[in-house]
């Protein structure tokens, strides 16, 4: 489960910026094409925050839809899986959104 190491990295990034201040809430943006299972990150968050300034903090995850543009027919596409295929049959799709994994905001006490 790579979500455990991803969640640990998120917690480390937050504590690097917030220092000793108690964190109340973290908002995370996860693209649907990022290859990260949001529910697994939520599960891991409580485990990896234990004993840190994030202990007891709420994790809000905003999932961002995948988008792309077909290089063949130039159609704009909504992408729901990592298997990208345009209606025209082309697999030559430029993924433009949905691979993000970023901390959007942190609320401290």
UniProtKB/TrEMBL annotation:
Decide whether keyword Zinc is in the record: yes
Gene3D superfamilies, alphabetically?
Answer: 3.30.2320.80
Q: Name one Pfam family in it.
A: HypA
Protein name per the record: Hydrogenase maturation factor HypA
Name the HAMAP family on file.
Answer: HypA_HybF (MF_00213)
The job of this chain, per UniProt, is described as: Involved in the maturation of [NiFe] hydrogenases. Required for nickel insertion into the metal center of the hydrogenase.
- Listed binding positions for Ni(2+) are 2
InterPro entries in UniProt = Hydgase_Ni_incorp_HypA/HybF_CS (IPR020538), HypA/HybF (IPR000688)
| Alphabetical keyword list | Metal-binding, Nickel, Zinc
Can you tell which superkingdom this protein's organism belongs to? Bacteria
Family recorded in the similarity comment: Belongs to the HypA/HybF family.
Q: Work out whether the entry's keyword set contains Metal-binding.
A: yes
- Sites binding Zn(2+) sit at 70, 73, 86, 88
* Organism name: Fodinicola feengrottensis
């Amino acid at each position: 489960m790579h979500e455990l190491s991803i969640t640990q990295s998120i917690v480390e990034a937050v504590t690097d910026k917030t220092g000793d201040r108690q964190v109340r809430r973290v908002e995370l943006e996860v693209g649907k094409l990022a290859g990260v299972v949001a529910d697994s990150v939520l599960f891991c968050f409580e485990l990896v925050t234990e004993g840190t300034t994030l202990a007891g903090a709420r994790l809000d995850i905003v999932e961002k839809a995948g988008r792309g543009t077909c290089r063949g027919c130039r159609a704009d596409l909504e992408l729901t899986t990592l298997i990208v295929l345009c209606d025209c049959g082309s697999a030559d799709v430029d993924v433009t959104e949905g691979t993000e994994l970023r901390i959007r905001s942190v609320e401290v006490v």
